[in-house]
Amino acid sequence: SQQGEEDPQALSIQEGENATMNCSYKTSINNLQWYRQNSGRGLVHLILIRSNEREKHSGRLRVTLDTSKKSSSLLITASRAADTASYFCATDEDGTASKLTFGTGTRLQVTL
Amino acid sequence: DADVTQTPRNRITKTGKRIMLECSQTKGHDRMYWYRQDPGLGLRLIYYSFDVKDINKGEISDGYSVSRQAQAKFSLSLESAIPNQTALYFCATSDLVQGRPGELFFGEGSRLTVL
User: Fold this and answer.
1) In angstroms, rounded to a whole number, what is the distance separating the alpha carbons of residues B33 and B76?
2) Would you tell me which of A3, A54, A102, A112 could form a disulfide with B43, CB atoms 3.0–4.6 Å apart?
3) Which of A2, A30, A42 sits opposite B107 (nearest CB)?
């Protein structure tokens, strides 16, 4: 079963706007990671946030983690057409073997 | 050259045929994974391996088998392919960071169609 669920499933914005994607999960985690996938391609790691961290930044990306609500958000600021892709959260569940469980993804479309 | 290489990239086969998807990596990672991606379902873990002698089932291992021939090579087999195994398959590798999985490095995927 899927551990994480992203919301919304699809998001369409204009270039320059900010995009926010949310991930909810069910169990305690050690860390949460965000990945990007261009259509039909392999996933690319964006950022990792540990369970004892609340916020992390990388360039135009900002990730927050709220372990009390079992949720995370990914904010892409000043979006570009090249940001068009699917974005997935993946969780490292506490008490399990070291493997990641992926959510269902958010499809982001950035138009000019 | 890519860090994680999958072959074949595309394969069309018939029901009942045996299929092997191969994965090789140059990252030097001990941990390797096979995931399956279906539209709307995200990625689901089929098998994973922490070293050559360690193979573990994921959430959807039925109908699949794997072989870890070396640290760098991890192959996925479908002994008798069926149409609902039509999907995009990904191999990935990772290292450990503070005892937990770090960043996964993915191959470009193997698109399998079973007729």
Assistant:
1) 10
2) A102
3) A42
Nearest to A45 among B44, B58, B103 (CB): B103
User: Helix or strand or coil: residue B25?
Assistant: strand
Calpha distance B73→A4 (Å, rounded):
29
Q: Residue B109, exposed/middle/buried by CB under 10 A (0-12, 13-18, 19+)? A: buried
pLDDT digits (tens, 9 = 90+) for A38-67: 998 999 999 999 999 999 999 999 999 999
Beta strands B42-51 and B54-57 are antiparallel
pLDDT tens digits for B52-70? 999 999 999 999 999 999 9
Q: Tell me the shortest Cα–Cα distance from B55 to chain A, in angstroms.
A: 12
Q: Which residues pair with A106 in a beta bridge?
A: A87
Q: How many helices (H) and strands (E) does chain B have?
A: 0, 11
Are B105 and B33 within 8 A, CB to CB?
no
Minimal-distance CA residue of chain B relative to A86 = B42
- Return the structure tokens found at A2: 């899927």
Contact B21, B75 (CB under 8 A): yes
Cα angle value A107/B1/B2 (rounded, 5°)? 30
B100 closest CB neighbour out of A31, A40, A43: A31
Closest residue, chain B, to A89 (C-alpha): B42
**So what's the pLDDT on residue A3?**
64
